[in-house]
Automatic annotation (TrEMBL):
SUPFAM superfamilies: Metallo-dependent hydrolases (SSF51556)
Single Gene Ontology BP annotation: proteolysis
Pfam family, one: Peptidase_M19
A molecular-function term among this protein's GO annotations: metallodipeptidase activity
Species this chain originates from: Melghiribacillus thermohalophilus
Protein name in the entry: Dipeptidase
Length: 316
């Protein structure tokens, strides 16, 4: 069964390796390096048909260097990811339908508006380069909003609201996965295309990165998608271990809130340090599919794997 995965951090991993840390002095090969959890080799093995690639700039990077770091990751996307003949750049929602047998779609996203600061011209440039989903924050605060880890818990700034409006205008997804609770509700008021690229159910794991039931219902009521994340601390509260069945509990809960046709996968491969047993990299995706088929109808599992996203994506 084919897969659409809406979040990985392979670009950051490739960038760190190119800069000589923490993977040694030699750059990593996106094609088949064992240190890349979403390598071409593993995407093929796991039957991943589309992989979203996040641009993420560490908040500790000085502000005057953040744009350069983002551009470096985009360059790696074009050179290292798209440099493989199987990888095809998705730049529009219609491109999903144009993928041929043996091709894997690659799509750029932005995790945190820190990269463009308050420069809307840089944001427009990201649109032109193919960014199709934007999360306003990572866990900290920036000029657009407070993140899930910011104690202040503020919502969107005027700049953040302008970014959401521009996302709407360009049919770009607005990702709520790292937002503060107030920021989430601000987005829900404004966004035409709300989206959680990698979040789980707070009712089962009380972590600030997860969504509570009222947020989940609001997402589903507005036609938004929630993609479950494979990071054990977001699956089992206070733990670094999780099983596939533990992850399925989150899918069960989201389904109980009406989301059977609005759930997907956002692994966070290449960005996590702990793993679901049997789901340690993209090559093992079919382990999850096989387990889901024990509990759900095949059509429902196809929905989780790829059809829900295709059904709910923005339409031109």
């Amino acid at each position: 069964m084919i897969i659409i995965d809406t979040h990985c951090d392979a670009l950051l991993r490739l960038q760190l390796a190119k800069r000589g840390k923490p993977y040694g002095k030699n750059p990593l090969s996106f094609r088949d390096d064992s240190q890349i959890e979403t390598s071409v080799k593993r995407l093929k093995k796991g039957n991943v048909k589309v992989q979203f690639f996040a641009i993420f700039v560490d908040p500790d990077i000085p502000d005057n260097q953040k744009w350069q770091h983002a551009i470096e990751q985009i360059d790696l996307f074009y050179e290292e990811v798209l440099g493989n003949p199987e990888m095809k750049h998705i730049r529009s929602w219609e491109d999903f339908d144009r993928l041929q047998e043996g091709e894997i779609g690659a799509l750029l996203t932005l995790e945190g508006a820190d990269a463009f600061g308050n420069d809307i011209s840089k944001l427009r440039h990201l649109y032109r380069l193919g960014v199709m989903s934007i999360g306003l924050t990572w866990n900290h605060a920036n000029l657009c909003a407070d993140g899930a880890g910011e104690p202040r818990g503020g919502g969107l700034t005027l700049l953040g609201k302008e970014v959401v409006r521009l996302n709407n205008e360009h049919q770009i997804l607005t990702d709520v996965s790292h937002l503060s609770v107030k920021g989430f509700w601000d987005v829900m008021e404004l966004a035409d295309y709300p989206f959680a690229s990698h979040s789980n159910a707070k009712a089962l794991c009380n972590h600030p990165r997860n969504l509570d039931d009222s947020q989940v219902r609001a997402m589903f009521d507005k036609g938004g998608m929630i993609h479950v994340v494979f990071n054990p601390p977001f699956i089992n509260e206070g733990q670094k271990k999780a099983s596939i069945d533990d992850l399925i509990r989150h899918i069960d809960h989201l389904c109980s809130l009406g989301g059977v046709r609005q759930i997907g996968f956002g692994s966070d491969f290449d960005g996590i340090s702990y793993y679901v047993k049997g789901l340690e990299h993209a090559g093992k995706y079919q382990n999850l599919i096989n387990e889901l088929l024990k509990y759900y109808k095949e059509e429902e599992v196809k929905g989780f794997a790829y059809q829900n996203f295709l059904r709910n994506r923005p339409s031109m």
